Here is the input.
Amino acid sequence: MGAALEHFDVLIVGAGLSGVGAACHLGMRCPEKTYAILEGRGAIGGTWDLFRYPGVRSDSDMFTLGYRFKPWIEGNNLAKGPKIRSYVAEAAREHRVTDKIRFNHWVSDVSWSSAEARWTVTAQHEGRPRRFTCAFLWMCAGYYRYAEGYTPEWKGVERFRGRVVHPQKWPEDLDYKGKRVIVIGSGATAVTIVPEMAKDAGHVVMLQRSPSYLFTLPGENPIAKFFGAFLPRSVVYRVVRAWSVPFQTWFYQRARGKPEKMKEFLLTKLREQLPPGYDVTTHFTPRYMPWDERLCFVDDGDLFKAITAGRASVATDEIDAFTERGVKLKSGREIEADIVVSATGLVLEALGGARAVIDGRPLEIGKTLTYKGFMYDGAPNLVSVFGYLNASWTLRADLISEYVCRLLKFMDKNGYAATTPVNENPAVQQQPFSDFSSGYIKRGAAATPKQGPAPWRHPQNFYTDFFSMKFGRLDDGVLRFSERTAAPAAAKNPQLAAAE
Here is the structure.
């Protein structure tokens, strides 16, 4: 006989911003529930521990990226990765979450049994599988593949005598002082890396196939600065957050409703920060309309300052091939480099890459409908956190956490063992999970669930979610609940569980 399976009321997968937040909410709202967090890596922080490239920072303001229950007490808008990692770890300590984390447990398989009303979760730990069971599975493993980022297949890359690195796997020994650097990409990662590397590199070129919309946020939030002079920091956090959430919503809706006016506004602000006569049309005017892709924030204008000072420049062209000395463009120009950084994006992945089975049948996420953007048609007792693309991730993660706790209490009160979203309308036409035109969204379409009319969609709207998740009916006719049956002996006494 092998070791008995450990059983928990709830298993949370991932100890990043979402997973730690989920555990904090669970501890505050459902203290009677037993739970554990399975974290595939050896540290808290998720994204903010994985990415170690120069200048890594948030691409959302910290007054909305921070947890609702834990004030961000510093005044800066965009925080560096180590600061965010410390913030998440501090929340875990304050809410006694740290001891609940099983590090280096990479979840590879999850399997639901309706007969037992439980999930069996297999995690790889030190080269061996470890199995757990739970009544409710809460996936907080993010939306991209941790093992590797996306790198296009470039012709002749093997000929390049320099070094090619991806931000997702930044080498600790990379010395770029005085070196010529090319950063390929125009998204948030490239916009962060270029000005930071330009401080020490000989010169940095941001090489982009097409531009993204950029908008500068001041280094210190002016509202926080004003109120911080006479109010406690915890109060300032709530004040700024109360202002930021509706402003973000208005800004996004304004962009979608009057895209030409928003485009004019963004480009006007951008021109003010660049040298006179700079070719904004070529290098900073995107082919799409604002918020067809996520808006990139520039921290205190650092990218534009680096360009103005001559430490960085922008090249807008397509790559023909790598050469021994650098990169040859389709225009015929060759850019020489010692280091090339491929800030070319992420690989989307559902459920942290885990294989999911329900009563012996594989769950193919890419063929399912999403319920409210965090559950799946036909998948019992399973929540998968996905935040906002047009606002801060944690705004939605917090709402989902409150909803899950409310759902668990409802199930306990009514004696339900399982809840499953069920679509019985064959006329529902499936649509992509997001209408964003970003490359990583398009590449990952097959791995993401599909949408339909409400509730089969992610609304991308905080206020819609707020009222739906906090006050909407749980027994809405779409969520189906099943009552408890006589529990097997293993459920009553984990020590009698089936051996591994």
Residues 486-500 have pLDDT under 50 and may be disordered.
